[in-house]
Records
---
Amino acid sequence: MSGFGAATAVEPAGEGRYGAVLDAGYLIGEALNGGYLMAVLDRAAVAASPHAHPVSTAVTFHRVAVPGPAEVIVEPRKEGRTAATFRVSLVQDGRTAADALITTATLDPAAGLAWTGTAPTGLPPLEECTEPRPPTGGGFADQVDMRFDRSMMGWLDGRPSGRPEIRGWFRLRDGHRPDAYALALAVDALPPVVLNLGARGWAPTVELTWHMRAVPAPGWLALHGSGRVLSDGWFDEDVEVWDSTGRLVAQSRQLARAPRDR
Amino acid sequence: MSGFGAATAVEPAGEGRYGAVLDAGYLIGEALNGGYLMAVLDRAAVAASPHAHPVSTAVTFHRVAVPGPAEVIVEPRKEGRTAATFRVSLVQDGRTAADALITTATLDPAAGLAWTGTAPTGLPPLEECTEPRPPTGGGFADQVDMRFDRSMMGWLDGRPSGRPEIRGWFRLRDGHRPDAYALALAVDALPPVVLNLGARGWAPTVELTWHMRAVPAPGWLALHGSGRVLSDGWFDEDVEVWDSTGRLVAQSRQLARAPRDR
């Protein structure tokens, strides 16, 4: 195991405790990416569960987590026929960095769709999106290959679109195939959609809930991010993740603080 | 205090514990409504917080809760300048019925909107919706006055619309004005949207996260429920709550199990 798999690995340490070594490769500035932390929390919950998939993960982020050793505490709360639920916490240097409620179940990779809405339209084909980003010498952008819809990236040049939307293609650079943990990373991988409303700077996630809806097929994932309201310093961001077969495989919503200079 | 206010009241019992008496008026069949339980959990979190509003509530429902005494356990996890977060559990007869992660903050009732999406269209005016339901002799429908868009209620007569959508107007019958706790009730008040896909019977909520986005104005609330995917026995349901001034005041998403006979 290497790359993303190794970076999110957890080692059982007894009594519902798991050790992890948080990887500097997932830094965005001075904070580890929230999706990366969710992947670690989800791995620990699944390790403690009889089920294979984290179907629901609700996380509240309390403090920035940094590279280095951390502990994941997994507390079983309910085990039923279909699902098992855990309270999961990420602890670093004796302080809780994040609390989560995670429900695990086993999704059938062959399950058909009883009903599905249609995919959002408008994401251009890969070759019309932004170019692959050259290596930055470490950090999040070196782990993921993201190709953005150019029409939603004007904020990079001081021309925000005026609509809180960002979409693009996503894969891990190391060849890690889409799975539950890659989905955890994907739902928090887009730049904050409020950048397209003229906001600048860090937009800390307060709460993020994501649901795994199907086992993703190999290939690129399409990410569609959008928001509904920015008010009183708070904004929401929904991300839908569609796999290469055109299936909705993950949904997330986060509540975040808008950068202060707006 | 009477009606909904009294039914959701919590009494401090020391050491982060609050007593509640769950009210039979919020039964749907043999289970208390999840939105009602969230209102009780949110009241306890706000009682323990320096802040006024539950801006984020993520709940996992483990077991049916029934009328009678219950205990709410509130554990502070992080207090910052803007927000304070708690783990909150509902315990009845020595068993945990629900676990929650609740973040409290204080929303400014006078806060302007920096940006908002448009309200969903298509909800007919009140007088064109379903008639007020006559008293049923107890239970949830006697507490809330809901007037549904008739075009989405064909499932009542065996003619589901084929689209997982239900919308309607909502208020409490006792005159309780819209507030955070009425919003908690509202986001889980609609019949399950999968009834419009031909499902019948009880659709237990596994996880529900809702965000309070603004202090609601007096008057009717407009509820817009919709789903994206039904697969492998799991479905999602989003509810947006718009107040009488046309402002988005709450957003929710739940992951639920579809009734078995589909």
Note: Chain A touches chain B through 54 residues (CB under 8 Å).
---
Amino acid sequence: MSENKKTSLENIGEFGLIERITAKATTNRSSTIYGVGDDAAVLRKNDKEVTLISTDMLVEGVHFNLMYTPLKHLGYKSVVVNLSDICAMNGVPEQVTVSIAVSSRFPKEAIEELYEGVHKACDIYNVDLVGGDTTSSLSGLTISVTAVGSALKDNVTYRNNGSENELLVVTGDLGAAYMGLQVLEREKSVYKANPKIQPDLDGYDYLLERQLKPEARKDVVEFLKDLKIVPTTMIDISDGLASELFHLCTQSGVGAQVYDEKFPIDPKVSTTALDFNVDPATCVLNGGEDYELLFSIKQEDFDKMKGNPHMTVIGHFTSKDSGIYMIDKQGAAIQLKAQGWNHFQEGGGDEKDDQ
Amino acid sequence: MSENKKTSLENIGEFGLIERITAKATTNRSSTIYGVGDDAAVLRKNDKEVTLISTDMLVEGVHFNLMYTPLKHLGYKSVVVNLSDICAMNGVPEQVTVSIAVSSRFPKEAIEELYEGVHKACDIYNVDLVGGDTTSSLSGLTISVTAVGSALKDNVTYRNNGSENELLVVTGDLGAAYMGLQVLEREKSVYKANPKIQPDLDGYDYLLERQLKPEARKDVVEFLKDLKIVPTTMIDISDGLASELFHLCTQSGVGAQVYDEKFPIDPKVSTTALDFNVDPATCVLNGGEDYELLFSIKQEDFDKMKGNPHMTVIGHFTSKDSGIYMIDKQGAAIQLKAQGWNHFQEGGGDEKDDQ
């Protein structure tokens, strides 16, 4: 390695780094159906089914702050964010492996508490913990989870299969996890300035739960199956709607228009955003960590899902040349940028470009 | 978590911690054939085959020291140690995911160098890199790899299927990786004491390569297939022969006798061990990181492998009550202890109890 012209990680950001690394990741084995570049890798299983594999790493001080993150919730969330990736492929999560590196600052009771959350997530999502690794670290806690799932071969939802005029749908509501983080960070600052002041978290239950204990939309995968809808594309919203929309558009070779008035936003998000002087739409576009699903459907499938309270149409794919725009309440078209978190710069958020 | 009676991790060691954690890891899904407790988890694939999943975490300062570990070798080794787990199940590795957490101290060129090693291992072992995660860390480098493989359902080699009188076989030679580490540590101490003295690594090529760039015995899996031998048990030697022998005996409910004069030891290991005042047999028993395979075969299979230069019979399983013994060159029976590395205490080694 040349010492002369080093490039710092801050200047590349994660997407650039991943692109460089995965440029060489050719797939040679016949059992690899799809490798790097989607929410999960897709592997040959049998005539009807495929195996899905997704992995994520959570690092103390980068993805979580133990000052306000209960270890049990952290264990739960570590599993859930990986199950969410399997759901985003329209698959059913079945197994996880959980590896941790911990410094001696953590007593065994802390690790047991973390694993209580892991087991809880496994119970709730009917997933088996089938392996992992435990090791020491010189400082801090790092958690790496790999999720394994399966899907019918013909029902897998990739990111690159979208077409013009298909409808864009999101599940649940967006922006709450981000506002939850803002509330926690505010109270942390207050506490740091004066440890005698108790944190004021009253009334923020929904936001805090969305941040600290998100859920994977396994139920949506089941709804879609019942409704006989196979989305043309799907991705989970871990980095904010804008970033995920960019992934779908770029990989499908299409543009998009979404309507800010259609964004599903909980009233508590709107009021808290106002307190923080943030536009609620910005929370939705750039916030992240909601772990809802963004997917596209053919127009003829719209009637099947109309009135479903879990799904909201927010726009549609356009031609590639039309770009990616949000239409605001005044009818102005605002060009979107892929503002996923660059946590090499900001030391926060949970950015993922692949499995 | 009670603050009163915390138990430090040093007092439990990894095996104790894993036992506590995995006690709750029940398997509920029909697709889980075998969960925690072997080299890899075994999942249902199709009528003939199973999917194997294994994962490992490598932490800077615990599993590797960048003062003497080239990043390319580190990337290579991170993949290989996981492929070794798939081989230990008598399977063929097919895919890996590689996740890294890096601090800003690493320029992008360093990460690219690490991935050069990852890609090299993938090329050599015909394995596809299908995913991963890249993230920042507050300090140091952590690598987490998950390997996926497949095996014929009837040919999977578990740890718990051994019986009295079966022969114990090891592949290759043992102790070299450990002696390689000793040489590197010695030169590091010399360099720290006086940075002007150049490290003297001449003549230690074999030991250093075994430590820094180990190989997985994928070839042995192929030999066994060609020889039509399905071992009754198999495990990879990551923590030293004694520790692995204990796993096989404990999980199979048998005892064992191994003969120190049978241990395959490279002459360079013997001479270097003498320089370091260590018994070569101790390197074999407690050294670890050779990533050779230890397996058991039925006596009637012995003729099939007789004369194969890659495999050495070192002893046999006995009854459980007979215990686990090494017979030394003088005929004395020495009771063995499972001295795998406890890296919560020692901050070194690479201990694994499960996938």
Note: Chain B has two domains: 11-155, 167-343.
